[in-house]
Automatic annotation (TrEMBL):
InterPro entries: ConA-like_dom_sf, DUF1961. SUPFAM superfamilies: Concanavalin A-like lectins/glucanases. This is Domain of uncharacterized function (DUF1961). The lineage of its organism: Bacteria, Bacillati, Bacillota, Bacilli, Lactobacillales. Gene3D superfamilies: 2.60.120.200. It comes from the Bacteria.
Length: 222
């Protein structure tokens, strides 16, 4: 495996070239960048946002970052293997403009896998916490695992998150604990996704700190 992208996420300018969809509040921190929303939560599902790394990544990747929830309720999500439904860039002018509204991502112009890993937005999610993996286009729920992340008052330090996508196998870990695993057979929910873009999403009024992002090409040697 070869490290192909690294970002400490320390400083206000570390996201300057990332593609922002929705209104994001960015705060500088010596321990990483702190992200929340600028829009009033009264906008409901239109107050949320998504942010993308502007590079396309290979089909077999490992994505790692440190995460610390700072304010809830809210929800955090990672997208990967994202491309336009005809294989084009998700930033193509041919696609409808996105603003952070969730249906634009699961039932719009793009295909992607996405894992929601801090699901503390709604009462039902806080009562029984899980991490969910979905495949889009189509909002297909494919698997889930128990979420070990605690409520804000019990957070101690940062949590190390890792997504591994190797061929049609997808795994997700928190602090090296395997949370979920799924094999995409390429049949039930359409062809397995390959290369694509990586992005992060938050639901208002969530506030969280991100740091030490690393992305590895699992096909390449060091």
């Amino acid at each position: 495996m070869k490290l192909i992208y690294e970002n400490s996420l320390c400083g206000l300018d570390v996201l300057s070239d990332w593609i922002k969809e929705g209104n994001i509040a960015i705060e500088e921190s010596s321990d990483g960048v702190i992200l929340s929303n600028l829009d009033d939560e009264k906008l409901g599902d239109y107050a949320h946002w998504t942010i993308w790394i502007p590079d396309i990544f290979p089909k077999n990747v490992q994505i790692e970052w440190d995460f610390k929830p700072l304010r809830e309720p809210g929800l955090c999500m990672v997208f990967f293997a994202a491309k336009g439904r005809n294989g084009e860039s998700i930033f193509s002018s041919k696609l409808a403009k996105r603003s952070g509204y969730y249906p634009e991502y699961h039932s719009g112009d793009i295909d992607a896998y996405h894992i929601s890993y801090f699901r503390h937005k709604y009462e039902s999610e806080r009562r029984f916490r899980t991490c969910n993996l979905r495949k889009s286009y189509g909002f297909h729920f494919v698997t889930q695992g128990a979420d070990p992340l605690p409520p804000i008052e019990d957070v101690r330090g940062v949590y190390h998150l890792k997504v591994v996508k190797m061929e049609q196998n997808i795994s997700f870990f928190i602090d090296d604990l395997k949370i979920l695993e799924w094999y995409d057979d390429g049949l039930e929910f359409g062809a397995a996704l390959t290369d694509g873009y990586i992005g992060f999403r938050q639901m208002a009024p969530m506030k969280a700190q991100y740091s030490h992002l690393k992305i590895w090409d699992l096909d390449s040697e060091r």
